[in-house]
């Protein structure tokens, strides 16, 4: 499975961005998909995930971010609203093609995109 993330950029506090992650694979609809982020000097952290069982969010983004997928386009999205400077990070999409379930743990995802940078200015 290959993943290609896009949509990052520079935005002001309170602004919005939508990230996209295009995936290869004929069974994309069955994959658990996640978004993670890594800020400078910090560890990679869970942001959101979507699987057959539903959608899940980190507390820090709940109510501001929305994860969704279009299985016809093999694409998962992350709509980010009310952005804050602390959301500044490289955002990575990931696929869990083995258990295909939701997970907050990065090691349970077996395919990763290249990352897209989101910068929120104050």
Q: What is the gist of this entry?
A:
This protein is an all-beta fold and 122 residues long.
Separation of termini? Answer: 37 Å
Percentage of residues in DSSP E strands: over 45%
Number of extended strands = 11
Q: Summarize the main sheet.
A: 7 strands, mixed
Radius of gyration (CA) equals: 13 Å
Measured as a percent range, the helix fraction is: under 10%
Number of helices: 0
Provide the structure class: mainly beta
Order of helices and strands: EEEEEEEEEEE
Average pLDDT across residues? 96
| Net shape | globular
What is this structure's SSE topology?
Layout: E1 3-6, E2 9-12, E3 17-23, E4 32-38, E5 45-51, E6 54-57, E7 65-70, E8 75-80, E9 89-96, E10 111-112, E11 116-121
Parallel strand pairs: 2-11
Antiparallel strand pairs: 1-3, 3-8, 4-5, 4-9, 5-6, 7-8, 9-10, 9-11
Question: What features would you describe in this structure?
Answer:
The protein has strands at 3-6, 9-12, 17-23, 32-38, 45-51, 54-57, 65-70, 75-80, 89-96, 111-112, 116-121. The strands form two sheets. Strands 2, 4, 5, 6, 9, 10 and 11 form a seven-stranded mixed sheet that branches. It has a four-stranded antiparallel sheet with strand order 1-3-8-7, with no helix packed on it. The chain is globular. With 122 residues, the protein is mostly beta strands. A hairpin with a 6-residue loop joins strand 4 (32-38) and strand 5 (45-51). The protein is built from no helices and eleven strands.
Distinctive features:
single chain, 122 residues, mainly beta, four-stranded antiparallel sheet, 11 strands
């Amino acid at each position: 499975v290959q993943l290609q993330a896009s949509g990052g950029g520079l935005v002001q506090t309170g602004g919005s961005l939508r990230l996209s992650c295009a995936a290869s694979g004929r069974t994309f609809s069955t994959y658990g998909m996640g978004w993670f982020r890594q800020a400078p000097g910090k560890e990679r952290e869970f942001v959101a995930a979507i699987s057959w069982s539903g959608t899940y969010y980190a507390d820090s983004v709940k109510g501001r971010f929305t994860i969704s997928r279009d299985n016809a386009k093999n694409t998962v999205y992350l709509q980010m609203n009310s952005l804050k400077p602390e959301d500044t990070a490289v955002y990575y999409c990931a696929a869990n093609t083995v258990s295909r379930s939701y997970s907050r743990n990065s090691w349970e995802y077996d395919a990763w995109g290249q990352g897209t940078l989101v910068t929120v200015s104050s």
